[in-house]
Amino acid sequence: MNINTSTSTYKKLQNNSDVTVKSTNLQPSQTNLVKDTSLPSSGQSTISGQGLMMSRLFGNADANPTIQTTLTKDTMAMQSVNFLTKDDRNMLSDLYAQAQQEGTDLSYVDDLANDLGTYRMFNHVMANANNGGTYDNTGHLQTFSFSADDTATATRILNSGNISSSVLDPGFVKYELDPGYSFAHRTNFAYLESVINNTGSNEISTEQGQTSKFSTYVSQGKNNFVVNTASEVTLHTEEPDVVNVDGVFSVTETGMKHGFQLVGGKVVQKNAVSMPDIQSQSVPSLLDNFTSNEKIEKSGHDRPATLFDYHFSKDEDKKFKNIDA
Question: In this structure, is the dihedral angle defined by the CA atoms of residues 291, 294, 299 and 303, taken in order, positive or negative?
Fold first, then answer.
């Protein structure tokens, strides 16, 4: 069960260990491009798809960071792209090369790479937020859905029949198109659809106008999903004594009943028992009983020689009391 105070938290899908990631065959000539400073027509240099991928995801065209495979305290602090597999990096290199050739803004590939990295990073600890375990802080059940446009695009992709033959991992595509897992996705679904449809038969689309469609990057921001909150409270929780909202404390009605109040902006409790009071009300220890003359007099027996003797003499006292009775 999860209590949401923010809609920025999300959960992930279970591992698909039997999925084989397909190698890409978008433009073989583009994948192995090297810098060419002798282009006569434009005078511009072209960097390889791999160089683009490394530069944009890891900050250096010559970088080749270790592929992370285990989620630990240390790797949690890393960027999700560090979990991209070797096949992922090769596939993305091809996509960057294709985007460069077509004039597609490379930020669209960046977003896809980051979502794929997130999928790899949390693949073993994923859970669906729409499985009935997400509530707001007042006990209303919450579910998540895509925007109307994304919902329509996701439906087309799922019904296209191209997922299994595309260059993308089918497990990732299904995760990406499920609002219970990726409602806060970064990938533009229209671009995702073009990748899946254009590479389903390992061919690059040459349709006129495709370049202009993705030539200017438009960020989806935080408006790519909808939070649906149930009207009825189904999770009943006990009201806390104190509530902290953005660093500001307030005492609830339950807290007032328990004696809490705000004094000078600080929460205090009326008639709170202090440490000296607690110590003065402490239960007598075994040592106190041992040194008590009153105890010894009531027992009617000689004072035990040691604390150890006293401890075991208690059973004997009970026996004598039973006999006297």
Answer: positive
At 207-258, the pLDDT tens digits run 444 445 899 999 877 667 899 998 888 777 777 888 888 888 888 888 888 8
| Helix, strand, or coil (residue 135) | strand
134-135 and 2-3 beta bridge pairing: parallel
CA dihedral for 190, 191, 197, 200, sign (positive or negative): negative
List Cβ neighbours of 48 (8 Å cut-off, separation of 6 or more). Answer: 31, 32, 33, 34, 35, 93, 97
Task: Report domain extents, the chain.
Answer: 2-233, 242-276, 283-324
Read off the pTM: 0.62
Q: Which residues contact 38 (CB under 8 A, 6 or more apart)?
A: none
Q: Cα–Cα distances in Å, from 256 out to 31, 76, 248, 251? A: 68, 41, 17, 7
Which tokens in the block code for residue 219? Answer: 């960020």
How far, in Å, are 26, 117, 123 from residue 106 at the CA level?
Answer: 16, 17, 26
Is residue 117 a contact partner of residue 69, using CB atoms and an 8 Å limit? no
Rounded CA gap, 239 and 253, in Å? Answer: 8
Tokens of 201: 């038969």
Structure tokens at 126: 């994923």
Q: Are 184 and 149 in contact (CB under 8 A)?
A: no
| 69-101 CB burial, b ≥16 within 10 A, e <16 | eebeeeeeeeebbbbbbeebbbbbbbbbbbbbb
